């Protein structure tokens, strides 16, 4: 959730330029009023950098100093650009261009292509993986799926660092990159990829920047035309610029210096894509007369969260660390961060789900909770755990809100009701705007109570519920607003990609969580080998991993939970240890030592919870006994793979599964999934069904002993499963459930 969507009300547009400055702190006001010459804003996490730069633009526009059409604000994601446009609109500065580097370059390239090159512009491919695969095949180089992804990443890095195929091997070695194949082979695929693009008359996203740079370098008349249009530039997240993006920015500027950059070297987490904080750190050297403003007042996080974030950076090394900002929280005190150790990863996921259920039951909104992990591969375990606990969730990186089919259909229905509502019997009983919206959306699937489960049906309902909530806030902020007014607001928000809040716990990787914030954050998998990740070898790579954890910590407003598991799978060797980044930051005795002494626990060993009235540690969960190593029931080998542990045998050991029983269980599972609106794996995974079909349990006790069943699923599905195993009809189908 972004800061922009945290408040669901609709603020009034300031009535003057001076009113735009109201509510800014002294440093933010310095940013807002520094409208001439180069300006560098060093802004720590949660210090209101987007607020400062949008108020700067709006103040300049409202004061008549800046023309809206002459300002170009660039950032790195469509979401960030959309948020910036939304804020500028609410400040009365509509008309300012706020775009990503790629979007701004593509717009210029499309406009000038006929004049600069002639004919139609080549088709833009949005995914280059297939082209890379074809290029590798042309070189007779076989790439597996992982190598294909990594070689594609190497090509992207080469292009943003302006490295041609013939120079790739030397450049990769100089940058210390671990290449997925021999550098000569990567260079060969890269060269073939470029040839294929030319043969097929297509370009990729990196070409958009390269070609725009080429046009502006070679055609001075076109460069002059662009510079006449844009005279004032603002660059957000400046620590993430690549050499290619910096070259484009220099060409946009020409010999002028009306440039404002905003960034934080301690949040540089995309160096693998070619991003570098050097341009931010060298800004004063490149622009000796620059105004430099430091924002360190943290309005997002409590002193406890800020203290941990500062402690993380205090141990950092390198140039970015030498320029770190010491944050100062502006919020009241909150709870201490909680550190929890678990026996294995499934126990860690179950523990997080249990804590989240407690938070939801205490009144915390699901949209204010996030689970953040280092790699996307960790997501599935948490999806399963949340689904088992009946907790709705949303995956960060799914399609944008206004692109969802149910939202598009709802928009069409609302637009139709706004035009022809007088002839719609659905609206006869609707007395105000919120009731009109509820009436219209009831025809699209919205109901007053959410459906059970957390699958596609629940996700569709959550989208519609977000529109209902938006209508209520809109009506409260603008009494007398009509359905047509709301439709216009939705159109504006869709253009700005300013989505309303969707209820559901967010699951996201640390990289995709950048720029977002929540009241409660669970940082999971904070163990050596995952944080820092195993392939981080050099000092620079280790420090980037530290900064990534710093970004995760600073996403939390109030409650922060950090956890790790001693083993990957139940019964596995407990060989892991907490991340080195936590050394010296956890209060009290070593959580790791205490956890092992106690034999491991589902609730873990926690630090930071205040003691309740009864003297117990708040939120502590009962301990679990240490599980014995799982062994294959066929050959006796110790099992460590989660799938094999569910089957209680090695994958390649003989199976005595009843194929007919397995198919009946799959058919039954499909029915259950449709009824609950969940994915099939949320009922039982394939491996669990195979284990059931192999064991053919006769009673609850035998069924409960099968990994993946658990007490909750035993209570919900046990009778049906046992009936199917006995060759009978499921109980639920007999009683018409």
From TrEMBL:
This is ATP-dependent DNA helicase UvrD2. GO terms for biological process: recombinational repair. Its EC number is 5.6.2.4. Belongs to the helicase family. UvrD subfamily. Its cofactor is Mg(2+). The keyword DNA damage applies. Gene3D superfamilies: 1.10.10.160, HRDC domain (1.10.150.80), P-loop containing nucleotide triphosphate hydrolases (3.40.50.300). Residues 595-606 have a biased composition (Gly residues). The keyword Nucleus does not apply. It comes from Streptomyces chromofuscus. GO terms for cellular component: cytosol; DNA helicase complex. CDD domains: DEXQc_UvrD, SF1_C_UvrD. GO terms for molecular function: 3'-5' DNA helicase activity; ATP binding; DNA binding; hydrolase activity. Residues 22-302 form the UvrD-like helicase ATP-binding domain. PROSITE patterns: HRDC, UVRD_HELICASE_ATP_BIND, UVRD_HELICASE_CTER. The lineage of its organism: Bacteria, Bacillati, Actinomycetota, Actinomycetes, Kitasatosporales.
């Amino acid at each position: 959730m972004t800061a922009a969507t945290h408040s669901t009300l609709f603020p009034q547009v300031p009535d003057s330029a001076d009113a735009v400055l109201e509510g800014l702190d002294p440093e933010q006001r310095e940013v807002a009023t520094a409208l001439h010459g180069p300006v560098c804003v060093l802004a720590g996490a949660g210090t209101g950098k987007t607020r400062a730069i949008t108020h700067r633009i709006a103040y300049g526009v409202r004061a008549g100093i800046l023309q809206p059409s002459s300002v170009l604000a660039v950032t790195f994601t469509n979401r960030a650009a959309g948020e910036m446009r939304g804020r500028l609109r609410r400040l009365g500065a509509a008309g300012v261009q706020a775009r990503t580097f790629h979007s701004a370059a593509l717009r210029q390239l499309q406009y000038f292509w006929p004049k600069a090159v002639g004919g139609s512009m080549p088709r833009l491919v949005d995914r280059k993986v297939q082209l890379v695969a074809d290029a590798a095949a042309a070189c007779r180089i076989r790439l597996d799926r992982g190598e294909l992804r990594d070689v594609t990443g190497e090509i992207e890095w080469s292009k943003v660092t302006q490295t041609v195929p013939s120079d790739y091997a030397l450049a990769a070695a100089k940058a210390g990159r671990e290449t997925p194949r021999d550098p000569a082979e990567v260079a060969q695929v890269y060269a073939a990829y470029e040839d294929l693009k030319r043969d097929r008359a297509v370009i990729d996203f990196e070409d958009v920047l390269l070609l725009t740079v080429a046009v502006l370098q070679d055609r001075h008349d076109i460069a002059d035309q662009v510079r006449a249009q844009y005279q004032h530039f603002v660059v957000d997240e400046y620590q993430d610029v690549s050499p290619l993006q910096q070259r484009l920015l220099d060409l946009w500027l020409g010999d002028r210096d009306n440039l404002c950059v905003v960034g934080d070297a301690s949040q540089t987490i995309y160096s693998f894509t070619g991003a570098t904080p050097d341009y931010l750190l060298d800004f004063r050297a490149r622009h000796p007369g620059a105004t430099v403003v430091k924002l360190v007042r943290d309005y997002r996080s409590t002193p406890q969260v800020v203290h941990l974030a500062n402690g993380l950076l205090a141990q950092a090394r390198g140039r970015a660390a030498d320029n770190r900002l010491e944050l100062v929280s502006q919020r009241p005190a909150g709870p201490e961060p909680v550190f929890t150790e678990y026996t294995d990863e499934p126990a860690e996921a179950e523990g997080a789900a249990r804590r989240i259920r407690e938070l939801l039951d205490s009144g915390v909104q699901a949209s204010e909770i996030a689970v953040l992990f280092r790699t996307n591969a960790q997501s599935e375990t948490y999806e399963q755990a949340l689904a088992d606990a009946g907790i709705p969730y949303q995956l960060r990186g799914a399609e944008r809100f206004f692109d969802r089919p149910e939202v598009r259909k709802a928009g069409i229905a609302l637009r139709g009701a706004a035009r022809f509502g007088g002839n719609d019997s659905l609206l006869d009983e609707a007395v105000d705007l919120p009731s009109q919206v509820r009436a219209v959306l009831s025809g699209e699937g919205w109901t007053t109570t959410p459906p059970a489960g957390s699958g596609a049906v629940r996700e569709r309902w959550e989208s519609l519920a977000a529109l209902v909530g938006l209508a209520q806030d809109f009506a409260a902020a603008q009494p007398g607003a009509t359905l047509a007014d709301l439709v216009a607001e939705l159109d504006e928000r869709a253009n700005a990609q300013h989505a309303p809040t969707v209820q559901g716990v967010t699951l996201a990787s640390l990289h995709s969580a950048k720029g977002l914030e929540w009241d409660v954050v669970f940082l999971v998998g904070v163990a050596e080998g995952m944080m820092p990740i195993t392939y981080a070898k050099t000092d620079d790579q280790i420090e980037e991993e530290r900064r990534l954890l710093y970004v995760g910590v600073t996403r939390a407003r109030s409650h922060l939970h950090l956890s790790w598991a001693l083993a990957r799978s139940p019964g596995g060797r407990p060989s892991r240890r907490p991340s080195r980044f936590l050394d010296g930051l956890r209060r009290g005795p070593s959580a790791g030592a205490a956890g092992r002494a106690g034999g491991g626990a589902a609730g873990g060993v926690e630090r930071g919870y205040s003691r309740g009235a009864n003297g117990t540690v708040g939120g502590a969960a009962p301990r679990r006994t240490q599980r014995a190593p799982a062994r294959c029931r066929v050959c006796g080998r110790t099992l460590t793979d989660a799938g094999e542990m569910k089957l209680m045998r090695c994958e390649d050991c003989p199976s005595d599964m009843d194929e007919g029983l397995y198919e009946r269980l799959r058919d039954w599972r499909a029915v259950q999934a449709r009824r609950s609106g969940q994915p099939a794996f949320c009922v039982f995974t394939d491996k669990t069904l195979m284990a059931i079909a192999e064991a053919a349990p006769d009673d609850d006790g035998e069924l409960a002993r099968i990994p993946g069943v658990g007490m909750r699923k035993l209570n919900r599905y046990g009778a049906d499963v046992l009936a199917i195993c006995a060759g009978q009809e499921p109980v639920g189908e007999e009683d018409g459930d």
